[in-house]
Write a structure and sequence with these properties.
There is one protein chain. By secondary structure, the chain is of the alpha/beta class. The chain has four domains: 81 residues, Ubiquitin-like (UB roll) (Roll); 137 residues, Domain of unknown function (DUF4445) (Nucleotidyltransferase, domain 5, 2-Layer Sandwich); 151 residues, Nucleotidyltransferase, domain 5; 105 residues, no CATH class. Helix content is 35%, strand content 25%. It is built from 19 helices and 22 strands. The strands form five sheets. Strands 7-6-5-8-10-9 form a six-stranded mixed beta sheet, sandwiched between helices. Strand 14 and strand 15 form a beta hairpin. InterPro entries: Corrinoid_activation_enz (IPR052911), Raco-like_middle (IPR041414), Raco-like_middle_sf (IPR042259), RACo_C (IPR027980), RACo_linker (IPR040506). It comes from Acetobacterium paludosum. This is DUF4445 domain-containing protein.
C-alpha cells in the first residue's frame, strides 16, 4: 500500500511531532520541515499554508497528516489535517470536452475509481462548436467570464453528483488533473483563446503548472494540474491519449487517431512522434444534419441494409429522434455497399422508396413519420452527405499526409489506436468501408475509449508519469496541415467512398466486387 502511495501524484504523510519546550524553540514551520527533510529533501510552504499553521499544530496536539506534491523538483505542502488521515487519499480526474465533461474520483491509496459521472458542458449554451464560443468571447471580458463561470458550474455539478454517489466530499480531494483541448483549458482559466484562432495560431500558454483550485473558483481544496498542450489544435487531451497508447515506448510504428471536435492524428514510436490536427469533428459527431444529434437517448447509432430493407437501432432502444456519428458512418457504408449511393455519395433514387426528393434535393428517410418520436420524417440529405464526406476526406488526408511525410505506407502501421467516444462506438468495418480509417488488418486496431480521461487518471495515480507527460509535450513534431500547398488537392481525392484509389482499400474493393458494385474493376483484375 505504501509503495503505491509513493507513486501517486500527491503524498499523504502522518507526523507525530514533539512540541516546543525548554530549550526547544524552533518555529512550527521549521519543525515540520525538519521532520520531512530526510525523506523529501527540500520542502516548502506557500504563504497561504504558512498562515494556517497557528493555531493548527497546537490544536492537533502536534499529530497531523500532511499532503504534499512535487512541484518543479521541490516538495510543497498543500494541506494540513489533524490526526491520521492517510487512509483518506483521493484525487479527481477530468476530461474537459467541448460537448461532454467526464469526471471520476479516485482512491489514490489503491488506484480504484470510486465513482464516475459525465454531463453536457454548460458552455454549449454559448455555441455548439468551439469556434462560436471563441467569437462570443472575442474582445469581451464579460463574455469570457460567462464561459469560464459556466465551465466551473459544469465541474460543480459533477462534483456534487459524485458526492451523492460516493459519499465523499470533494473537499477531501486535494489534487485534480484536467485533460482537454487547448481552447477548453483557456476557457477553464478564464484566458482569452482568440490567439489560438488568429495567425500565427499560438496559444497564450501550453503549460499551467499546479494552480490553487480556489483561485479558479472551484469548490475543492488543493491544486489543479492541466495536461499541457502541444499546439493550437493539439491539446492536453492528445497528450493524455498518447500517455495511454504508449507510442513513445514501443518499437513498432503506431498511429493515434482521435476524432472529436477536431481530428487529431499522431504517427510514431519510441524514436519520434509526428502529429497534426484539423477541423473534422462537428460533421462526424452528427452536427451537420437537421436531424443530427449527439449520442444520447433516441439517437440512431447503427444501421444495416438487408435485402434492400433498412434496419436501425437507437441508443436506449427508444424511438428515433435523430442520428449520431456512428449511425451516419453505418448509413453511408451500408448505402454504398448496397448501391443506394455511388462512389461520390450521390443517391440512386430508383433503388429504394426511402430515397425521396425534399426541398429540391434527394435524401434517405431512415425513419418514417410513424417510426420517429417527433412524428416527422427523419431524413439524411444529399447536402448532409457532402458535408460528411468533406469531414471524412479531411481526416483521411491528415493520415495520408503524415504517412507520406514519414515516407511509409499505411501497411507499415502495426497498431492503430482509436480514441474518443466517436471512435469507441462506431463500427470499424463501416469506418474502413467509407475510407475514414486505413484498410488494415482489423486486429491492428485498438480502442482506447476515453483516453483523455484515462490519461488524467494515469497521471493522477503515478507521479512517475509526469516526466513522460513533459517528454511527450516536447518531443512531438507538429505539422501545420494548412501550410501544405497540396492539402486541398489531396482532400478532393479523398472525397470519394472509400477513395479514388481503390487499391488502397483492398478489402473494401473485394466486397464491392463481390456485390457486383465494381464490375469494371473485376474485369480489369482478371
Amino acid at each position: 500500500m505504501e509503495k503505491f502511495r509513493e507513486k501517486a501524484l500527491t503524498r499523504k504523510i502522518f507526523l507525530k511531532l514533539s512540541p516546543p519546550g525548554d530549550g526547544d524553540i524552533i518555529g512550527d514551520k521549521e519543525r515540520i520541515i525538519k521532520a520531512l527533510s530526510q525523506e523529501f529533501g527540500k520542502v516548502k510552504f506557500s504563504y497561504q499554508m504558512l498562515r494556517t499553521i497557528y493555531p493548527f499544530c497546537r490544536e492537533a496536539n502536534w499529530e497531523m497528516t500532511l499532503t504534499l506534491i512535487e512541484n518543479e523538483k521541490v516538495w510543497e505542502i498543500i494541506r494540513l489535517e489533524a490526526g491520521d488521515r492517510t487512509d483518506y487519499h483521493y484525487g479527481i480526474a477530468v476530461d474537459l470536452g467541448s460537448t461532454t465533461v467526464a469526471m471520476e474520483i479516485v482512491d489514490l491509496n489503491t488506484g480504484a475509481v470510486l465513482g464516475q459521472m459525465s454531463v453536457f458542458n454548460h458552455q454549449i449554451k454559448f455555441g455548439d462548436d468551439i469556434l462560436s464560443r471563441i467569437f462570443y468571447t472575442k474582445g469581451k471580458c464579460s463574455h469570457l467570464k460567462e464561459i469560464q463561470k459556466s465551465t466551473i458550474e459544469t465541474f460543480s455539478e459533477l462534483l456534487n453528483s459524485l458526492k451523492e454517489k460516493t459519499g465523499i466530499d470533494p473537499k477531501e480531494s486535494y489534487i485534480m488533473v484536467v485533460s482537454g483541448n487547448t481552447t477548453m483549458i483557456h476557457f477553464l482559466l478564464g484566458i482569452d483563446p482568440w490567439p489560438i484562432f488568429q495567425y500565427p495560431f499560438a496559444p497564450v500558454f501550453n503549460h499551467t503548472g499546479f494552480m490553487n483550485a480556489r483561485d479558479l473558483g472551484l469548490p475543492v481544496e488543493g491544486v489543479v494540474f492541466c495536461m499541457p498542450s502541444v499546439a493550437n489544435y493539439l491539446g492536453g487531451d492528445t497528450v493524455s491519449g498518447l500517455l495511454v497508447a504508449g507510442l513513445h515506448e514501443k518499437e513498432e510504428l503506431g498511429l493515434f487517431i482521435d476524432i472529436g471536435t477536431n481530428g487529431e492524428m499522431v504517427l510514431g514510436n519510441k524514436s519520434f512522434l509526428l502529429a497534426g490536427a484539423g477541423a473534422a469533428g462537428p460533421a462526424l459527431e452528427g452536427a451537420i444534419s437537421k436531424n443530427g444529434m449527439k449520442a444520447s437517448s433516441g439517437a440512431v447509432d447503427s444501421v444495416i441494409i438487408e435485402e434492400n430493407q433498412l434496419k436501425l437501432t437507437t441508443i436506449a432502444g427508444s424511438k428515433p429522434r435523430g442520428i449520431c456519428g456512428s449511425g451516419i458512418v453505418d448509413l453511408l457504408a451500408q448505402m454504398l455497399l448496397n448501391g443506394w449511393i455511388d462512389f461520390s455519395g450521390r443517391f440512386n433514387p430508383e433503388i429504394s422508396k426511402r430515397i425521396i426528393k425534399i426541398d429540391g434535393e434527394y435524401g434517405v428517410v431512415y425513419a418514417w413519420q410513424e417510426e420517429s418520436e417527433s412524428k416527422e420524417e427523419l431524413v439524411f440529405t444529399q447536402t448532409d452527405i457532402g458535408q460528411f464526406i468533406d469531414a471524412k476526406a479531411a481526416a483521411n488526408t491528415m493520415v495520408a499526409y503524415l504517412l507520406e511525410r514519414l515516407g511509409v505506407e499505411a501497411s507499415e502501421v502495426q497498431r492503430v489506436y482509436v480514441s474518443g467516444a466517436f471512435g469507441t462506438y462506431l463500427n470499424l468495418e463501416s469506418a474502413i468501408t467509407i475510407g475514414l480509417y486505413p484498410d488494415l488488418p482489423r486486429d491492428r486496431f485498438v480502442s482506447l475509449g476515453n483516453s483523455s480521461l484515462n490519461g488524467a487518471y494515469a497521471l493522477l495515480i503515478s507521479a512517475e508519469k509526469m516526466d513522460k507527460v513533459q517528454m511527450l509535450q516536447e518531443k512531438i513534431e507538429y505539422l501545420e496541415f494548412g501550410a501544405a500547398s497540396d492539402f486541398l488537392t489531396r482532400m478532393f481525392a479523398a472525397r470519394f467512398l472509400p477513395h479514388t484509389d481503390f487499391d488502397s482499400y483492398p478489402t473494401v474493393k473485394a466486397e464491392l466486387i463481390k456485390r457486383g458494385r465494381l464490375r469494371d474493376i473485376k474485369r480489369d483484375s482478371k
